[in-house]
Amino acid sequence: MDQLHTALGSLKLLRTSVGQIFETLGGGIRIEHGEEHGENKFLHELQELLTLTNTHLRDLESTINSLSTPPAPLTLGNTSFLTQELSQDRQALYSQLVNSYKWIDKVHEYGSIASTVLHSNSLKRSFNNNSNKRRRPLVSCHNIPPTHFENVLTSNCLSDMTINITRPHARNAIVYITLGRVLKAALIFKGIMIEWVTVKGYDETFDDDLWAESRHQVFRKVQDHTHSAMLHFYSPTLPDLAVKFFMAWLHSYIKLFSEPCKKCGKHLLNSYPPTWRDFRILDSAFHEECK
Ligand SMILES: [Zn+2]
């Protein structure tokens, strides 16, 4: 094993020095070579690099020669039992297994890099960092009793709105909202915070996939706007109010197909009704182009 490691080490060295050669060649004559004898110095540098590469190549050759062929294939734990497999098509599992080991290693590596990057990111949606001690005590948005959740939802349910609260995954609720005969929305909650919204037409269902988009372009546009609204009204300190404002805002879509645009006064622009609703002035409809 040690020999293999040294061989791999010298292979790495060789690759680095070859890489250096190409880098120097690509860079050409640089300022630090001086103006007068620049060419000579450049060639000299190149020659040195080539000699170095030669040495590395010789090192690699000698380490490879000292390697002995392994007596048996390298085993990875219990994978050696795979050789006892009689069925032909399952014998190929070994190489697939090695590949998946490699993948898992990569996933671990990328995962740890991602975690360091994300930890340094200050744009956190949750208030986990209690660095500011003077901040008032936080209401937990994730762990709220179901009765309170239902109260908040039903008290903010406006006319022409029907809501149906389901809890397929124990704590976190999915709320289905039907708005008149215009649209349907599925609100996926985490605690009392809205995590995702899917908007569909009145004639569509959420049966097959909660995340699948509507087959109508207009509701896909509305869905995009609900996501902006979800982030706009988001407030971890006053989560109940965030839900209240969001519901009121969503309710303004009751006139999606009947209200003209506030700016251009038309019902249709580029074949779309006014799909945008202002966050502050509710019931003000705008085309995406007119907002
Ligand atoms: Zn308009």
- Unreliable residue stretches: none
Q: Helical proportion?
A: 40-55%
Bound molecules: zinc ion
User: In angstroms, what separates the terminal alpha carbons?
Assistant: 67 Å
Q: In order across it, which strands form the biggest sheet?
A: 1-2-3-4
Q: Helix/strand-derived class?
A: alpha+beta
How many β-strand stretches? 6
Shape: elongated
* Secondary structure tally, helices: 6
User: What is the radius of gyration computed over CA atoms, rounded to a whole number of angstroms?
Assistant: 32 Å
Mean pLDDT: 85
Helix/strand order: HHHHEEEEHHEE
Concise structural overview:
This protein has helices at 2-27, 38-66, 93-119, 146-155, 217-233, 239-251, and strands spanning 161-169, 172-179, 183-190, 193-201, 276-277, 285-286. With 291 residues, the protein is α+β, with helices and mostly antiparallel strands. A four-stranded antiparallel beta sheet has the order 1-2-3-4. A two-stranded antiparallel sheet has the order 5-6.
How would you characterize this protein structure?
The structure is a single chain. The protein folds into two domains: 2-66; 146-286. It has helices at 2-27, 38-66, 93-119, 146-155, 217-233, 239-251, and strands spanning 161-169, 172-179, 183-190, 193-201, 276-277, 285-286. Helix 1 packs antiparallel against helix 2 and helix 5 (217-233) runs antiparallel to helix 6. The protein is elongated and about 85 Å long. The strands form two sheets. The chain has a four-stranded antiparallel beta sheet with strand order 1-2-3-4. Strands 5-6 form a two-stranded antiparallel sheet. It is built from six helices and six strands. The mean pLDDT is 85. By secondary structure, the protein is of the alpha+beta class. The chain starts with a helix and ends in a 5-residue tail after the last strand. The protein is 42% helix and 13% strand. Zinc ion is lined by residues 261, 263-264, 266, 269, 274, 286-287, 290.
